[in-house]
Amino acid sequence: MTNVTRSSPSRRRAEPEVPPQPGPLSLDRQVCFALYSTSLAMTKLYKPVLGELELTYPQYLVMLALWEHDELSLTELGLLLFLDSGTLTPLVKRLETQALVDRRRDPNDERRVIVSLTPAGRQLRRRAQSVPAAVANATGVSVDELVTLTNTLHRLRAVIGDATLRADV
């Protein structure tokens, strides 16, 4: 923290530093900032691990969803990942360029785009098995703490989602 100085026409003097009083607008008291800054830190933690798989973090999330479901419509994928089609479509196209996924129109409904894993996408799953443990280990937090935190965040997301829906009505 820097010293606060006030200048007057006649003289300058350093005033003693007064620590800020924690209040409702203190940055460190904001849950939004704690979530935001932690999310940034987690993404940085994943970067070198995912670099070995030649995936970005958002691409990894797409692959996780597909490893779990094998085939999803673009709409279903967006709902699972909380991403709109404007964000999701370029991610899927890059994964298709890497030959990890295929995109095709649903023969029963031409408006639907189906995303599925390729053999290379399925093989990448084996290489990615070590990612969760590597990241968990790098946090220095116990597995039990991470499970508890994850469950708490899922509950928070559900409550926020419900509140958002009620506010939209």
Give the tags.
3-stranded antiparallel beta sheet; Arc Repressor Mutant, subunit A; 169 residues; single chain; alpha+beta
Topology:
Elements: E1 5-7, E2 12-14, H1 31-51, H2 57-69, E3 71-73, H3 74-81, H4 85-97, E4 101-106, E5 109-117, H5 119-128, H6 131-139, H7 143-168
Antiparallel strand pairs: 1-2, 3-5, 4-5
Helix pairs in contact: 1-6
Could you characterize the architecture of this molecule?
It is a single chain. This protein is of the alpha+beta class. It has a domain at 50-134: Orthogonal Bundle (Arc Repressor Mutant, subunit A), CATH 1.10.10. It has helices at residues 31-51, 57-69, 74-81, 85-97, 119-128, 131-139, 143-168; strands at residues 5-7, 12-14, 71-73, 101-106, 109-117. A three-stranded antiparallel sheet has the order 3-5-4. Strands 1-2 form a two-stranded antiparallel ribbon. Strand 1 (5-7) and strand 2 (12-14) form a beta hairpin. Helix 1 (31-51) packs across helix 6 (131-139). It is extended and about 75 Å long. 9% of the residues are buried. The model has no long low-confidence stretch (mean pLDDT 89).
